[in-house]
Predict the 3D structure of the following.
Amino acid sequence: MGSASEPLAESVNRYSVDVRRDDAGWSTAIVDPDGTAVSVRACRDEAEARTYASTVRQHAEWLSEDRFREYYGLEQTG
């Protein structure tokens, strides 16, 4: 039996977050399990991009994939 801190395999959220910088500036992308950016948020600077990414990462740890998609208004993939 796993410890209380180990997530159940079925509850693991496979979404990830990518902080980006390009000619347009900083952004934070939510990336689906297939590696596709399904939401990109433009950010004022690196600090804002990293702060938003941290929040999204926490939500990905706390929420099921279904609830995460609902919270961020993402369409189901696959």
User: Anything to note?
Assistant: The helical segments are 46-62, 65-72. The mean pLDDT is 90. The beta strands are 16-22, 25-31, 37-43.
